[in-house]
User: Fold this.
Amino acid sequence: MMPDIDPRTDAKKKRAGIGTGILVVAGTADAIVAGSGFGPSLSVREIVMAVVLAVTTAFIVVPSGYRFRGHGPAGVRGGGNGSGLGWRTREADEAAGGPAHRWRGLVVVSRVMPPTASRRWLAEAESVLSEIEAPRRGPAIRSYLRSAPRLAVMMWIREVLRRARLGPRRPG
Amino acid sequence: MALRLTVQVQLVVQALLRDPAREMYGLELSEETGLQPGTAYPILLRLEHEGWVTSRWEDVDPRAEKRPARRYYRLTAGGAVEASAALAGARRPAGSALRRLAEGGGVA
Assistant:
């Protein structure tokens, strides 16, 4: 029998883990950078630290099951404050009745596309990948990832043209 | 922007033209053409944008079916005519691509 997990407690634990991870890596990186000769040059040190923090945060946050709000599963737009970030976990998705994305890489890549195109691409990829035989799944995922940048450019061009056709939004 | 009939585009169009009234979903098209699904998807989008193809989400309950809904693609009436004409005037798909398909290999 599965133990009852309170999604909020689970989210708090994840948040604490992510925070601790970022602090530990930031502290270690600071010590390494300070002792590596970057010390006198404050701007270089700051840039190195910013890059280390950004990369570490991305690496810790993405595989942790942390999901972005605003892009819900299979075309469902999630709730949230509009910031695009939220503590909605894979477990919380399943508890809410929505399918959890099993292919996190695709979710991350879909963020570079316009929202509507991103939702459709992700939903269709999920649909195909869930039915494809296991040995063919890896190459199929790679094909989605490979075609994503060109697709994103194509979709953004279309989105910009569409908005240009609609003209500026008038208040009221 | 005119649609460029690359070998991959021709393969997708040919698969759809085999039975223009038939709806095909991504995986089916990928298997018929030998293209990877990630390669076929942008082609289908372009065909849809050109008005050659129409698509819809399958109306099923994913929980009952135990799989997500499929997106079905079908040639439009005008699309079928235009696609046939375009294919007739296009260069035939490269022999190596066809050979690979016949051998059961995929096209990236």
Observations:
- Helices of chain A lie at 7-34, 42-61, 90-95, 104-110, 115-131, 134-166.
- Chain A touches chain B through 28 residues (CB under 8 Å).
- Residues 73-166 of chain A form one domain.
- Chain A has a mean pLDDT of 70.
